[in-house]
Amino acid sequence: MIGCAALRPVTVAGMSDVSASNTSTNKWIALTEQNPDHSSWYVERFRSMAAAGDDLAGEARFVDAMVPRGARVLDAGCGPGRVGAQLAAAGHHVVGVDIDPVLIDAAEHDHPGPTWLVGDLAELDLPARGIADGFDVVVCAGNVLTFLDPSTRRPVLARLAAHLREGGRLVAGFGAGRDYSFEEFFDDVQSAGLAPDVLLAGWDLRPFVADSGFLVAVLSIAAPTG
Ligand SMILES: C[S@@+](CC[C@H](N)C(=O)[O-])C[C@H]1O[C@@H](n2cnc3c(N)ncnc32)[C@H](O)[C@@H]1O
Predict the structure, then answer these.
(1) Is the CB of 79 under 6 A from ligand 1?
(2) Is the residue at 5 inside a domain?
(3) What are residue 117's DSSP bridge partners?
């Protein structure tokens, strides 16, 4: 019953009660409600793949190429720390935030070093939690955006944008067919004050085209208009 912990109200300084603010309209939380073992299953799945020598570092290699050495990286919706841990190993200063306490427990256990925090991206306020500096890059990998309560997509993008330092960039990747069309995403990006720098069809740098089944979007703060 490990996954039940994911549904307990979690109140942290600077964050509201994450379970109450999302209930089951957040698809990840809905999965943990339907299957109390979902979170621990997910943790073990990635532990098994790592033990088997699978390449789990594609997103981290991409992000590493975007930033200077020793950069500040926010792994938004970090899960058990797959991406952030690789970036920390490459010498970056990593903060990971995830709504699921079971996954954050696993990140702390498997990948000590980065700062792993339980929190809802829709209400992200890291300065209120003692992390004042902005980030060179915010990475949102593994379809995180498609799990959000749809009503929080724009607030999440705006909160992530607010955590960028000047010149910083947000990179998000997710697949088609997950009830969040790329067109809706581009509208939300604009609404959140962001603009696409680069659109790709995968973390392997293939170009994004009309029928791409995956999108990796590198976003910057939009230039002021008028
Ligand atoms: C498929 S997992 C991806 C985990 C990790 N990014 C990776 O690629 O290995 C999706 C993650 O999104 C997180 N998530 C969903 N909604 C969230 C929210 N509102 N705030 C923070 N994390 C959220 C889930 O808890 C889950 O860890």
Answers:
(1) yes
(2) no
(3) 97
Distance 226 CA to ligand 1 centre (A): 37
CATH assignment at residue 85: 3.40.50.150
* CA-nearest residue, atom 9 of ligand 1: 82
Q: Contact, 224 vs 193, CB < 8 A?
A: no
Placement of tokens 């899960």 in the chain:
79
Residue 46 CA: nearest ligand 1 atom is 9
- 93 within some domain: yes
pTM of the model: 0.91
Q: How many domains does the chain have?
A: 1
CA separation for the pair 191, 158 (Å, rounded) = 8
Q: Report how far apart, in Å, the C-alpha atoms of 209 and of each of 54, 140, 182, 204, 215 are.
A: 28, 21, 11, 14, 9
* 99 CA from centroid of ligand 1 (Å): 7
* Structural domain boundaries enclosing 124: 26-221
The verdict on residue 64 lying in a domain is yes
In a domain, 155, yes or no: yes
The C-alpha atoms of residue 147 and residue 127 are separated, in whole angstroms, by 25
Each residue's pLDDT, cut to its tens digit, for the chain (226 residues) gives: 222 232 233 333 223 344 444 458 999 999 999 999 999 999 999 999 999 999 999 999 999 999 999 999 999 999 999 999 999 999 999 999 999 999 999 999 999 999 999 999 999 999 999 999 999 999 999 999 999 999 999 999 999 999 999 999 999 999 999 999 999 999 999 999 999 999 999 999 999 999 999 999 999 999 988 7
With a 6 Å cutoff on the Cβ, whether 87 touches ligand 1 is no
